[in-house]
Design goal:
780 residues, alpha+beta, Helix Hairpins, Sec63 N-terminal domain-like fold, 6-stranded mixed β-sheet, transmembrane helix, J_dom_sf, DnaJ_domain, transmembrane, membrane
């Protein structure tokens, strides 16, 4: 270690390398995450189909006013990032220009002579180069001249030449140096005060303040960015009132600490509240402002409750005072409702686990009322209002949603109507307003559920035994109602085209019908239709009528197979039963068709003399292929679940929601859970689906009942954004009795005689010899 020394960077070359790498590591992720992008460039189709109603325009202008410096901030971010990349390019250029004195020192290359040149040639080349680069000359360069001199000495001096050949340096072996990639001015006495001041500012003040702020915020908020005091408030009221109606859920929501000035600095009481809030309270009869429970009777809670009632009633409020408070309160509600769902589900699970008394078990209606409150607030509607009011240009006095056959109650029923009926119902709207309505409907969700129940850890996955862990895998497929609109339009076009063809070919059908009746021969007629009488005429008439009826029935049946799944009403309990009936009809048709084909194939086998015994011999190969296919499916399923776990919680982007009365942009989220309607209990905790773009597969696990029998559960999918998009699916579990595990293996059961023999012969080992046995007998 005698020849080692540490030295700082004098010229700044190694420091530039450090700065270049550090700046590159910072600029790459910063450009990826901070480069401002326009939402119009990312989603052009969305803005082409976006609603341009009055409420949506007001919302867009409000969002622009909320952040007026957005464009300026985006430009500043772009400017900073571009300047950072320009500085990075400048540093790269500076680093490339560095020429270290001893880096790749080759005297032959510097003088421009060949390897093994004579001293005369070396001297001539040195004189020629030195005349050109001498510092006294106009074209002189001191650096190059010093290099030439050193190269000349390295090739002419024997000691320098030997050092260069051995060590690569004409001066001989150098001491090992360790450089620090920091400029030397950092350790100079003149700059020590400034360096120490910077260290003190960063590590003694800046870092503790940042860590303290983060820690103070983390201990105040939960994972959903909700105050922990609010979470405790929810636990208290849901434990106090296990069965809570929708009106009381709204009261508890308004009492959240996010709306209290002492817990939230964004809430600022105004002097105008003394006049405006009492006037607003008088407009509602069921507000419950005389409730004496704390904190439901506090002023901030009553004000927030009145503003939520005004929002659900779609009342106009003063723009500069109460409307600003309403927008802030409504914006916070989705996260608060999600925290409510988590609190209620945890209380229900604790009660089922025996940690809470069953008398304090929250009812199933309580958690469902909490979930129902979310789409009400997002759309600004009470639950007793028509879901059609979610559409633009539709108000309470709009009473035309009635056709000749039925009353339209849901948006999906309206989307399934033919275009002419849809336009006639909205005949009071202008073409532009009608296009806005259809654009909003085409973006609304249409969900399909594929449900599979199994026990993954068992050999027989389809068999469910008592107390087994059941996994219900739900595959959600998200489409838009635009598919229903296009299907109804195509059905109407095909129907109109079919009626036109039918009218053209009506005469030809009559002619062919008469020909068929004439050529039809009853079985009892021998002479080919010579028999005349009443019975013969009736039989021929019936035979002639049956054939066209069968021709008319079959085509609609075949055409309807492809559309039954898409035309099922969303959110009805008959969804699964109708699908089962449809599958039953298809299986009957396939079975009837299979009998015909089998008979025909038997005839063909008899005619051609084919041998069918080869198929029996290949059953083992088919079984092996089926096992391999099932194993591949199982592996793919596990891979999908692992991938879903990795992606879980990384994003909260699905599809934008049309909600002109909600102050912010909203994404479609869902709750998925299994419940027992008979016992009014929750089987699985609600799973919050936040990434449903096209398809998503979600596993729900729960323990099967401890007693065998048939159990009926309900799989529920609830939307937090729309009022009429909930879905229900019935799950029927046939729970078998669990197989008892034998405590003792049958091969290990020993009789009493064998036990006695073993006890007597236990002293004799398997490795003892006859001599050992004789010695033991002699000793006895």
């Amino acid at each position: 270690m005698a020849g080692q020394k540490f030295e700082y960077d004098e010229k700044g070359s190694t420091f530039l390398y450090f700065l270049l790498s550090f700046l590159g590591l910072c600029l790459l992720p910063a450009t990826y995450y901070l480069w401002p992008t326009s939402s119009r460039d990312e989603e052009p189709e969305r803005f082409k189909k976006s609603c341009s109603c009055e409420n949506c325009q007001v919302k867009k202008s409000r969002l622009k006013r909320k952040d007026p410096w957005k464009k300026t901030k985006d430009r500043m971010q772009k400017l900073l990032l571009i300047s950072g990349w320009a500085f990075l390019a400048f540093l790269a250029y500076k680093v490339s220009q560095f020429d270290y004195e001893y880096a790749n020192f080759d005297p032959y290359e510097i003088l421009g002579v060949d390897l093994g040149a004579s001293n005369r040639e070396i001297k001539r080349a040195y004189h020629k180069q030195s005349l050109k680069f001498h510092p006294d000359k106009e074209t002189g360069d001191e650096k190059i001249f010093m290099k030439l001199t050193k190269a000349y000495e390295a090739l002419t001096d024997e000691t320098a030449k030997r050092n260069w050949e051995l060590y690569g340096n004409p001066d001989g072996p150098g001491a090992m140096t360790f450089g620090i990639a920091l400029p030397s001015w950092i350790v100079e006495k003149e700059n020590s005060i400034w360096v120490l001041g910077l260290y003190t500012l960063v590590f003694m003040f800046g870092l503790p303040i940042i860590v303290g702020t983060w820690w103070y915020r983390s201990i105040q908020y939960s994972s959903e960015s909700v105050l922990l005091d609010t979470t405790q408030l929810y636990y208290y009221f849901f434990h106090k009132t296990p069965s809570m109606n929708l009106h009381r859920v709204l009261m508890v929501l308004a009492a959240s600490m996010e709306f209290e000035p002492n817990h939230n600095k964004d809430i600022k009481p105004r002097p105008s509240d003394n006049e405006e809030v009492p006037g607003l309270i008088k407009q509602f009869t069921n507000l419950g402002e005389k409730n004496k429970e704390r904190p439901l009777c506090f002023g901030y809670s009553v004000k927030a409750r009145a503003l939520l009632h005004a929002h659900l009633s779609r009342l106009s409020l003063p723009q500069k005072t109460l409307d600003i408070d309403r927008a802030y309160i409504v914006k916070k509600c989705p996260d608060l409702i999600q925290e409510m769902v988590v609190c209620v589900s945890q209380l229900m699970m604790l009660a089922h686990a025996g940690r809470l008394p069953m008398s304090r078990l929250p009812s199933l209606e309580t958690i469902e009322n909490v979930m129902k409150l979310s789409p009400m607030i997002v759309q600004g509607l009470w639950n007793n209002k028509s879901p059609l009011l979610q559409l633009p240009h539709i108000s309470d006095d709009f009473k035309h949603f009635v056709t000749r056959k039925k009353v339209i109650k849901t948006i999906k029923q309206f989307a399934q109507l033919p275009p002419a009926e849809r336009r006639s119902i909205l005949r009071s709207l202008s073409p532009e307003e009608y296009s806005n309505v259809m654009a909003v409907i085409s973006q609304m969700p249409l969900i399909e559920m594929d449900v599979r129940s199994e026990v993954l850890d068992d050999e027989e996955t389809g068999k469910i035994t008592a107390s087994a862990i059941v996994t219900v895998t739900v595959k959600l497929t998200r489409r838009s109602m635009e598919d229903l609109i296009t299907e109804s339009d195509s059905n109407e076009q095909s129907h109109s085209a079919g009626t036109a063809i039918a009218t053209k070919d009506n005469g030809k059908e009559d002619e062919t019908q008469s020909d068929i009746e004439k050529s039809k021969k009853p079985a009892w007629v021998k002479g080919g239709g010579k028999k005349k009488g009443k019975n013969a005429k009736k039989g021929s008439k019936k035979a002639g009528q049956q054939q066209p009826q069968s021709k008319k029935k079959n085509p609609p049946k075949a055409a309807g197979k492809g559309n039954t799944s898409s035309l099922q009403p969303v959110g009805t309990g008959d969804h699964s039963s109708s699908l089962q009936e449809h599958k039953k009809e298809e299986s009957e048709e396939e079975s009837s068709g299979s009998h015909d084909t089998d008979s025909g194939s038997d005839d063909d086998d008899d005619q051609h003399g084919t041998d069918t015994r080869g198929t029996q011999g290949s059953t083992a190969e088919v079984d092996d292929e089926d096992e391999e296919a099932e194993w591949e499916k199982f592996q793919n399923r596990i891979a999908k679940k692992q991938k879903m776990k990795l992606l879980e919680g990384k994003t909260r982007i699905s599809h934008p929601v049309h909600c002109p009365f909600f102050p912010e942009e909203k994404q479609e989220f869902w709750w998925l859970y299994i419940s027992d309607r008979k016992n009014r209990s929750l089987i699985t905790s609600p799973y919050h689906v936040t990434t449903l773009m096209d398809q998503e597969e979600i596993p729900l696990k729960f323990s099967a009942p401890s007693k065998p029998g048939i159990y009926n559960y309900n799989l529920v999918l609830r939307s937090d954004s729309y009022l009429d998009c909930d879905m229900f699916h019935s799950i029927k579990l046939d729970v078998k009795e669990a197989v008892e595990i034998p405590t003792e293996h049958p091969q290990w059961d020993l009789s009493e005689e064998e036990d006695e023999e073993e006890n007597e012969g236990s002293a004799i080992s398997d490795y003892t010899t006859d001599d050992d046995i004789d010695l033991s007998e002699d000793s006895d």
